Records
---
Amino acid sequence: MTDTGTNARPPHGDVAELSYEQAREELVAVVSQLEAGGASLEQSLALWERGEALAARCEAWLEGARQRLEAARAAADEGSDA
């Protein structure tokens, strides 16, 4: 199969090792590639799967940040009650 350039940008590697910013940046690139069209069905499926993994990574980072904020607020509330 010939690469038509739609996959020219190599992925950052293991999604679990990406920072939020890296995952978000790569997700934007994946969405752009899918929206541009021109990829084969196999390439499109691979991009879709990568995009799903990247979106899940971003959600995990955001959930972790939310939990940290809630813990900090709870600790601040406990400190003000004492």
---
Amino acid sequence: MKLFRMIQKYDFSLYELQLYLDTHPNCTHALRMWNNLQNMRKKAVSSYVQQFGPIRPDQTDSSAPWSWVQGPWPWEKEAN
């Protein structure tokens, strides 16, 4: 749960930075922050997928794309 919350925080921060960079495209500080957060998010997502399974269908190695959810959904009691 803690790792998933961290991914959500990265997503929020990246979205806010995206909006800022849309209006301030030459801000090197914001761009460095964007790149740093992108890398941190990628690592967190990779770790989450290894431990708990895919968050999105494109993160599966399955040959059948819609069989990616085999266990309980995160909000179901069995998942926690």
---
Amino acid sequence: MALFVMICLDKPNSLDLRMATRPAHLAYAGTFASVVKLGGPILDDKGDMAGSLIVMEGETEEVARAFNRDDPYTLAGLFQSVQVLPFRATIGSL
């Protein structure tokens, strides 16, 4: 299976929306525990959550895109931008 990385950047001044939506996002992401290899928040200069980085395994990029499409963060309009890119782990392991 291939790896894909999602880089999701929050809209400016949206920490309150992120925090309000976080429990639903974490519950949703937990249902993908078998394919999400690494995930967590991207932090801003103050140390506040300002985005998400997720590494997923899947047959095609569509697996990652479908995950993002139905993510409560996406449905709430949190993200300013989302990139889904093929990824290869070279150092370390997932």
